[in-house]
Amino acid sequence: MSNHEQTAPSQPTFAVRNTIGKGKEPTPQDRGGSASDVAFREYCDKNYNQLLPIIAEKFNQKKERNDKLKEKIGMGSSGLAYPDRFYAASSYVGFNGPSSSINKKFSNDAALLLYALYHQATVGACNVVKPTSWSPVEQTKWTSWNGLGNMASTEAMRLFVKILEEEDPEWYSRASDFISEPPVDVEMNHNSKAELLTKSEVTPSETRTVPTENGNSLETQDKDIVVEEVSPADVYDQWVAPSVSGPSPKPRYEHAAAVIDDKMYVFGGNHNGRYLSDLQALSLRTWEWSKIEVKTDAEASLEVAPCAGHSLIAWEGNKLISIAGHTKDPTELMQVKAFDLQTNTWSNMKTYGKPPVSRGGQSVTLAGTSLIIFGGQDANRTLLNDLNILDLETMTWDEIDTLGISPSPRSDHAAAVHEDRCLLIFGGGTHATCFNDLHVLDMQTMRWTRPTQQGDIPSPRAGHAGVTIGENWFVVGGGDNKSGVPETVVLNMSTFTWSVIATVEGRVPLASEGLSLVLNSYKGEDILVSFGGYNGKYSNEVNLLKPSHKSSLSSTMVGTPALDSISAAQNTTNGTRDIELDYDADQERNVNEISIDSNKTQTYKVDEASEQFLTALKAEKEELESTLSKEQSLSLQLNQELIEVESRNTNVYKELQSVRGQLAEEQSRCFKLEVDVAELRQKLQTMDSLQKELEILRRQKATSEEAYAKQKQTSGGVWGWLAGGPSPSDDESDS
Q: Which of 37, 393, 468, 678 is deepest in the core (most CB within 10 A)?
């Protein structure tokens, strides 16, 4: 059989992309190669069917070597993206078909949860009838599946993989049979050999064990957060793990934390796909954990539902406000609950106005006496970007209509308030991507802007946490659905400049999603305290960092590009400005600052740049004085108009008094008329009674007259008797 008549072999199971074009034969000029290349490609086209088995054999040999290498060194947790990672995990566990069973190596609780999450991810919410009590195993499976409610399939996939990684951290390295290899490009070279272009294998960092203060050990990779025998207050810009005591809380993420009286309170969260409702407290003086026993037998107490993705705010020194969050049975509108630390009871806080829709993953920021709520994800997994404000003094909701371009809908972002004037939104994500954009809302003009970020701009992330110290915003953790973020960054909220202050490596809690971060003081200095999170494993570890950044800056930067961009975007001017001018000849920058000190008599020599700056200030001063003069003139005009209005008000008041007098007279006259009417009514009633008596007398008279006439007709009387007529007695006897 000739080459042209030979039957093509069946396509191999792996994907091989042929780089040689089909159809019209290109010219050497089209290919951009030499004549020998053209001849070689023609040879490959003609003998493609013979070359393909050779290429496949070499590829299989390379694949076998890679598989053996994977078994030795293992693979990272970010090898596959979802949903392929979920399918590989479910195949590894044993879900190969309807009749398959979960591997026996898992505990009953883990096996039930994996069963429920698998069906939630592949089928959806439980849609089968509850089995009878005669089938206890099936009934237990049904209960576990039905307990997930309306959890989204994507969330169920992620939780399935997370639980598997907890139960079997090395599953991925042993799951090569369940993981399909990506397509590999095959390129022909001059020597008639096929070389496979594959990614270079990267050996993971060497794992080592570092002892901690409490005698425990922690596996780390390269640089880690734990420093041996180091006090939390001894080092700056480095994460350390304090020695904690007491019963540790259950590992979790998407919880909320707040600080009151040197205690960090942790409420709720997510553990193995289950929402939590416990309230834990960590003393930031003794580093001892304790569980808050919530009283539910009180008359006004409330039993809160387990939740995650909510926010916790310290208020009035003895209350914790829990707002929003995901629950198993979500409500339509956002709920606000308060925990009283004196009575240890939960209660619903009554609000007024229209509350926003229920959600989780939002940001809640305290500005003065108001809570600013932005974004999040509702119960239907719809991402939001609305802005709502809750006044904690009046407990009134207000939905804000903003100007400018709002941030795109997102959840699991971070927010901060600077000088009770600007709201900053950073990062967050959707169902498919994460952001690293920065948005600023001027809360006086309610206009959104997007300033230019400078310095070490952070990578996209979601699930991070942040706190502010002065004009510095510290951001920790987060991830991009592939790996956690190892850097701890700080943003100067005046210049919008980022910088990295600490970096961790390996799968440590600080490179996690859904961790919490609070601010407190330790031995007179500010410290950041993180707790929990998820990075392939749920965490309940506590870490702290003492930043070296100053809480506030003594001078204001002049001519900063970031501030100029904000000013240009907002197109607003400040009515009054307080300018502090500092002079420092040692600055490497070309920004010249002038210091005015009333206690010093020394006169500084001003260079050309400073003179230009002073000229600009003088021009601005003249402009402000001109504006002030106009404002004063307008004020005088308004005062004159006010006097005229007051005069008119006086005349109107006099007229009102006159009308009131006339009205009083009319009221008196009406009263007299009412008295006369009452007397007339009484007389009328008397006349009615007299008329009735007269009618009775008339009837009696008529009756008497009728009787008399009748008697007169029946008897002639005395004169008839005298005339010889019959007497009345005779008539009676005859009858």
A: 468
Question: What confidence score (pLDDT) does residue 556 get?
Answer: 34
Give the residue extent of every domain in the chain: 80-175, 238-546, 649-702
Residue-level pLDDT at 136: 83
**CB contact set of 246 (below 8 Å; sequence gap of 6+):** 288, 289, 290
- 238-546 is a CATH 2.60.40.200 domain: no
Question: How many CB atoms neighbour CB 89 within 10 A?
Answer: 26
| Angle subtended at Cα 609 by Cα 607 and Cα 612, rounded to the nearest 5 degrees | 110
pLDDT in tens, 597-613: 444 444 444 456 667 77
Q: Return the residue matching tokens 């502010």.
A: 468
Instruction: Record the tokens describing residue 366, joined without a space.
Output: 């305290």
Backbone angles phi, psi at 308, to 5 degrees: -150, 160
Between CA 590 and CA 309 the distance in angstroms is: 47
- 376 pLDDT band (50/70/90 cuts)? very high
DSSP secondary structure code for residue 513 in this structure: B
The closest of 515, 514, 413, 424 to 468, measured between CA atoms, is: 424
pLDDT (average), residues 326-334: 91
pTM over 0.70? The answer is no
Fold designation for 80-175: Acyl-CoA Binding Protein (1.20.80)
251 preceded by a cis bond (ω within 30 of 0): no
Q: State the pLDDT at residue 490.
A: 95
Annotate 243-310 with DSSP letters as a single string.
--BSPPPPPBBS-EEEEETTEEEEEEEEETTEEEEEEEEEETTT-BEEE-----SSTT---PPPBBS-
